[in-house]
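In this supplementary section we document a worked example of the pipeline. Step one takes a protein sequence of length 153 as its only input; no multiple sequence alignment statistics are reported here. Step two produces a three-dimensional model, which step three serialises into structure tokens for compact storage. The input and output of this example are shown verbatim.
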Amino acid sequence: MSETLVLGLGNPLRGDDGVGPAVIEWLRQRGLPPGVVAVDGGTPGLDLVLMLEGRRRAIIVDTAAMGRVAGEWARFALDAAQLRRNRSVLSLHGAGVADALELSAALGQLPEEVVVFGVQPAHLDWSPGLSVAAQAAVPEVGRAVLREIANDH
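The serialised model returned by step three reads:
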């Protein structure tokens, strides 16, 4: 199993909710160093616990309602103590992601490092395709993820 998991969460059929999978595709096209795997995680809910199991590091990319301008993104470093405080900004899949991370921590399976890149969506309707703002964020977040990976290698 790879040491670092880059996980893109979201549903590409729901507008900007597809930004996580879009970043994963962008990363796959550029290649990743050994020990790093990029996975389109869809909308996993508590299955996220199984995806994190055995990893030293997890980098999660998802939409996040942060009250920012559409396409703006932010990096959040999380640990078990911060999970409850940061529930509201983790993800639009908030309950699923936050609950899965809390469960991983309770089971002693939370990776020692968890970083979340959240992207503010413009729209989340039932139509495929990213907004112009989210499309512009994909390479920016992709490059930030690559820098994050490089900081440990």
